[in-house]
Structures are given as structure tokens and as C-alpha cells.
Amino acid sequence: MIDTEEAASAAVQRWLDTLPGSGGSFRVKAVADGGPVWRAVTGRPGTHLGDFGARVDKATGLVQPGFVPQIGPSARDGYVSMMRTTVVPELRRLGFTGSGRRLTLQTPRHLGTIAFRQSQGNTWMGVKFTADVSEASSSSGWTARLGSISHHGCDHWWTVWAGFPSDDVAADLITAIRDHAVPAIKGERHPPGVSAADTDVASLGQRLRNAVSHRVQRRRPHNGP
After folding, report:
1. Do the strands 96-99 and 63-65 form a parallel or antiparallel pair, or are they unpaired?
2. Phi, psi torsion values for 161, nearest 5 degrees
3. Rounded Cα gap, residues 83 and 96, in angstroms
4. Is the peptide bond prior to 36 cis by the omega test (within 30 degrees of 0)?
5. What tens digit of pLDDT does each residue of 168-188 get?
6. Rounded to an integer, what distance in angstroms lies between the CA atom of residue 50 and that of residue 2?
7. Dist. CA 212–CA 206, nearest whole Å
8. Nearest-angstrom CA–CA distance, 160 and 156
9. Residues 6+ apart with CB under 8 A from 221
10. Are 161 and 41 in contact (CB under 8 A)?
11. pTM of this prediction?
12. Dihedral (Cα; 19, 21, 22, 24), 10-degree rounding
């Protein structure tokens, strides 16, 4: 009888250690109650995402890959709830408008968008998603994956698993947007694919245009009394 999360986690870990070629590279990330089974998410140490799921039969202790049976809210239900109740409200507080998969950030000098996209391989068990970040108002507009300009530094995909809390996923996603995407959209950090030299040249060009415009304004005749 496997009647606690701790016992389920230990059973899954023993199973992971016996997988061919695993070399002890996988660890149990989380365990949740799934009715007649315990559900477990496993992955490599030091990574935010889980790599695959496993289940433990409560009565027999048998460990198998995958989440079965499909009891309770699906991963998509969890994703929608996370976005609706946590992520989108926080983005609105940051100044974003819009809803659904696409939100916009308008500032006096910049127009940025964040468009969420999901993996085509999503299942009832797991939803993987990422986002494209765009800035379209500057002379060197750009588009990049959120992960590549965030603290992850790569094409990072987040995952919501069926029956598991998504608080950590939401917090990590908001950090990537608030601390990395927003400053990039506002021009407070070098946008992806544009070197510091390119940014300086663009800035110099804008200063020259402003100077010319100011001189033209000064030379215009004054028609007032």
C-alpha cells in the first residue's frame, strides 16, 4: 500500500533509477493525488520543466509511465485557470491590454506585444507553452522568444501538468515578462539581435533628426501680431 506522497515519491525514484541509460539523471519533481494512483512529474535536476510523468498504483505500488486514469481537471484546464487568475491580471498591472493569447504594451515611444503559443504535442496530461515578444515601433523592430531574452537564456517552454499546482510556473513566467521582456520592449536593455553599436547608431540618428527638426522650427516666419 502506497498511502503517502513521500512513499509514492520514493517508489517513483527507485523506478527512475532502474531505467536503462538514466544514470541517475532524473528526479521526482512533484507528486499529486490522482484517485486510485499517485501522479508524479519527473525531470532533470536544475531544470524548471518536467520531462515526463509517471503513476503509482496505490494498492500494488506498481509504477508505470504516464498519467492514467484521467481524473479531475486536465492540464489545459490548469493552464487556462493559471492565465486567467494569475498571469493576465499581473500583466494588466504592468500596463498590458488585450486578452487571450495576445497582449499589448503601449508606451509613448514603444509598442510591444506578447503572444502566447502552445505546443502541438500537448495532451490531457501536460500543456507546454511559450511566448513570442515583439517590439514594432522602433527603427529596429524585433521579435524573439520570451525564454531567449529572459533569465533562462534559451528557447524555454513552460509546462502545466494535470492535477499539479501551477503557482511556481506562473511566478517564473511573470518574472520573465516583468524583469526581462518589459525592459526590452521599452528599450531599457539591448533588444535581441541588435548590438550595442547598432543601438547607439540608431540613437545618434534620432538625435540628428531632432536637431534638424528644431532648426527648421526656429527658421519658420512668425505670423502673429
Report:
1. unpaired
2. -105, 145
3. 14
4. no
5. 999 999 999 999 999 999 988
6. 22
7. 10
8. 14
9. none
10. yes
11. 0.70
12. 110
CB-neighbour burial class of residue 31 (10 A; exposed 0-12, middle 13-18, buried 19+): buried
- Cell 513566467, residue? 173
* 145, 130 Cβ separation under 8 angstroms: yes
pLDDT in tens, 116-158: 999 988 888 889 999 999 998 756 789 999 999 998 888 899 9
The Cβ of residue 128 has, within 10 Å, a number of other Cβ atoms equal to 19
d(CA 27, CA 45): 6
Fill in the amino acid letter for 12. Answer: V
Contact assessment for residue 180 and residue 192, using Cβ atoms and an 8 Å cutoff: no
Nine-digit cell at 140?
Answer: 529596429
Tally the residues of the chain: 225
Q: Flag whether pLDDT at 103 surpasses 70.
A: yes
Band the pLDDT of 209: cuts 50, 70, 90: very low
- 3 state SS for the chain: CCCCHHHHHHHHHHHHHCCCCCCCCCEEEEEEEECCEEEEEEECCCCCCCCEEEEEECCCCCEEECCCCCCCCCHHHHHHHHHHHHHHHHHHHCCEEEECCEEEEECCCCEEEEEEEECCCCCCCEEEEEEEEEECCCCCCEEEEHHHHCCCCCCCCEEEECCCCCHHHHHHHHHHHHHHHHHHHCCCCCCCCCCHHHHHHHHHHHHHHHHHHHHHHHHCCCCCC
